[in-house]
Specification:
Number of strands: 30
CATH architecture of the largest domain: 3-Layer(aba) Sandwich
Shape: globular
Radius of gyration: 29 Å
CATH superfamily of the largest domain: Glycogen Phosphorylase B
CATH class of the largest domain: Alpha Beta
Largest sheet: 8 strands, antiparallel
CATH topology of the largest domain: Rossmann fold
Helix content: 25-40%
Low-confidence stretches: 18-31
Strand content: 25-35%
Distance between the termini: 61 Å
Strand order of the largest sheet: 4-5-6-7-8-9-10-11
Mean pLDDT: 92
Length: 677
């Protein structure tokens, strides 16, 4: 190391010491008393995966930390899962939640079965507490056993007719208990009926399917639940899930927050009629857009559609950057709140002293395309040329495992890159690593980076949305490199492997970043957000009641010198008119973006239709249709919106109006634009 480099290191050490002292002084100030609102909390996702990832970790930690403040919660899952009870026992055994404060519930296990009254019994082929304890005649050609490759336990027993067509299939869980029976069509070989079973013989639900020869899979006809109050039928899974949610809503008048963690579950909650005592909300765990920020991801469409309909009471963001991007795209909403992640330990609580292996580079990620593990592997073909003893240890499992093994072999990296599988002890791995790396395509906020810095392990990360550059400050606690620049990634890995003093500085600096995500800060964010949510809802409900008898209608439209003028008619009288701001707002029909708005004065509104600002908004969003609403709000942006209908005599021609070339009346009689391309 030359003199200039030594001077730079010394200056950086002094600067960092000063920053930590300032931070410590600031943290010594008394924290305000934290009090989470007294409500029932329901955290919702689809299923608990065997080796669950960041979203489930975040949900469990939220439930655990709420429990430490004597706030009970429910972790709701919808999907059919024969291993649910075993997974819950494992979560509790690892002390991820306190079972006295958090109830992990599944629709089948905790709603359908306990509230059922079976009218039919199934006679299994072999009645036993554990099917694996039964001695079978394996020479019988009409029966086939399917076993788990690792444990050799029976998973399924298939029964065949004499013509070798399958008759039925019995399915067993890892405890050897029968849980489902499927019957197969002789004509198509597809499932036409499923029986859901508990206690060996009791049928609590049936699924009936329409036998379709031309389709690869039969279509669900109906679901039949043998409920205690009588048989109930449902046309689809959505109706059944909403039955459970409705049951929860009406079991008491106490306030309830339904917080959806998984975007796939949004429609089940937000399309359900909401009681006045219920609050609907969502937390965003991942990127909301496609390749361009104006293109909304399809799985986010339901959420932002319901935000526009004002069915959502709160949206919680993990990073300020994503919240800012959403506001730019969809307009200001006072239901948007920042609630960053935390971990259940701070760097001050890391007391176990492990020596970092100077050659170990760590990656903690599921083996999926989104995590882009292949770039990390490819970087090591350059790393080992400079540091032959370097090792990349990758912990995680997933569908890309086979492909990644092939890549390691093809690049001759078998002695330097290792797929280690899932680990139950991530802290130990981070504490014994020189650094960790993250090469994701996108994240909501990477928990693996948080786990790294809380264990004083420097991070080299791609600069992706969201959270990477927030958690890793370039040249402070790691390096932030341009996304997909594999050679640049390799160079920074080499630099940190070779430079001991730089590693030491980065490791010490991790502590400062970790403190920003302390548990006390986490509580404060949630307390602030939840109380504000209650306040906003109360004000929104007031405006809703006030504006319920008020209706607007477009009664005239004209255009002169490229200025579009609209005349409105209002039915009813607005109380405290001076405190209510009326606006005409145009939203993109496809991505729900707020394109532009204009104040309504004396029931008139006009704007230059060809203005550069409007053109830019339409081009940026690749807008095809603009839907117009009247927005009524106060100065604090407590608002409601209603679609703008058109008078019967207006805009009745086919296609767009000749007045401006864009205006037209929708099938439902509302005002919209069709944008010419």
């Amino acid at each position: 190391m030359d003199n200039d480099e030594r001077l730079r290191v010394l200056i950086q050490k002094w600067f960092n010491k000063h920053r930590r002292k300032t931070l410590k002084n600031n943290q010594s100030q008394p924290q305000p008393h934290l009090q989470i609102p007294d409500m029932e909390y329901y955290f919702i996702t689809g299923k608990i995966k065997e080796n669950y990832g960041g979203m489930t970790k975040s949900l469990l930690l939220r439930a655990k930390l709420f429990g430490l403040k004597n706030i009970s919660s429910h972790f709701l899952t919808f999907s059919y899962d024969p291993e649910f009870s075993r997974k819950v026992k494992g979560i509790i055994a690892k002390q991820k939640v306190n079972p006295k404060m958090t109830k992990i519930q599944n629709m089948y296990v905790d709603f359908l079965i306990p509230n059922s009254k079976p009218e039919e019994q199934y006679q299994p082929s072999h009645l036993a507490d554990n099917i694996n304890e039964v001695v079978f005649d394996h020479e019988d050609p009409s029966i086939r056993f399917i076993r788990d490759e690792q444990t050799n336990q029976i998973e399924m027993i298939e029964f065949f007719h004499q013509n070798q067509h399958m008759e039925k299939r019995e399915e067993y869980n890892t405890q050897g208990q029968l849980h489902k029976v499927s019957y197969f069509s002789q004509e198509t070989g597809k499932v036409y009926q499923e029986l859901f079973i508990y206690q060996h013989t009791h049928i609590y639900m049936k699924k009936e399917y329409v036998d379709l020869e031309e389709e690869s899979k039969n279509k669900l006809k109906e679901m039949i639940w043998y409920a205690q109050e009588g048989i109930k039928t449902f046309k689809n899974e959505k109706a059944l899930r909403q039955e459970w949610l409705m049951n929860i809503q009406y079991k008491s008048d106490r306030k309830k927050l339904f917080l959806v963690d998984s975007r796939k579950q949004d429609k089940y909650v937000f399309q359900l009629k909401k009681r006045s005592s219920s609050y609907y909300s969502a937390i965003i765990h991942s990127k909301h857009y496609e390749t361009e920020k104006t293109a909304l991801r399809s799985d986010y469409n339901e959420l932002f559609s319901q935000i526009r309909k004002q069915k959502v009471d709160a949206v919680f963001f993990i990073t300020e950057e994503q919240k800012t991007d959403v506001v730019k795209q969809f307009g200001h909403q006072n239901i948007f709140f920042l609630t960053p992640h935390t971990l259940d330990r701070s760097s001050h609580q890391v007391q176990d002293h492990y020596m970092a292996d100077p050659h170990k580079v760590l990656m903690m990620a599921r083996l999926t395309k989104i995590k882009n593990v292949i770039d990390a592997i490819r970087s090591f073909q350059f790393v080992i040329k400079e540091v032959p003893s370097a090792r990349l240890e990758i912990f995680g499992s997933g569908p890309q495992e086979k492909q990644l093994k092939q890549e390691i072999k093809q690049l001759n990296l078998e002695k330097n890159v290792f797929l280690k599988g899932f680990t139950q002890h991530p802290d130990v791995e981070f504490r014994t690593a020189r650094m960790s790396i993250s090469t994701s395509v996108f994240e909501g906020c990477p928990l693996s980076i948080m786990e790294s810095i809380v264990n004083n392990c420097p991070v080299i990360t791609y600069n992706y949305d969201y959270g990477a550059s927030t958690l890793v400050k370039n040249d402070f606690n790691g390096f932030v490199v341009e996304q997909y620049e594999v050679k640049q990634l390799a160079n920074k890995i080499i630099e940190l492997l070779k430079n001991d003093e730089q590693y030491q500085i980065f490791s010490e600096n991790c502590q400062e970043i970790a403190e920003r995500y302390s548990i006390s800060n986490y509580y404060q964010y949630w307390v602030t957000a939840l109380h504000k949510m209650l306040e906003v809802r109360e004000k929104r409900d007031h405006i809703q009641r006030m504006m319920k008898p008020i209706h607007f209608k477009l009664i005239d439209i004209s255009s002169k010198h490229h200025v579009l003028s609209l005349d409105l008619q209002m039915e009813g009288v607005i109380e405290n008119r001076k405190k209510v701001i009326l606006e005409l707002v145009g939203y993109d029909r496809d991505n729900h973006a707020e394109l532009f708005s204009k104040n309504v004065e004396d029931l008139k509104v006009s704007f230059p239709i060809g203005h550069a600002f409007i053109k830019a908004a339409l081009q940026r969003n690749k807008t095809k249709y603009v839907d117009f609403y009247i927005r009524m709000r106060d100065e604090e942006f407590n608002e409601i919106t209603q679609r703008l209908p058109i008078a019967e005599h207006l805009l009745n021609e086919k296609g767009v109006s000749k007045i401006d070339g864009v205006s037209y009346k929708t099938i439902k009689g509302n005002y919209s634009w069709k944008v010419n391309k």
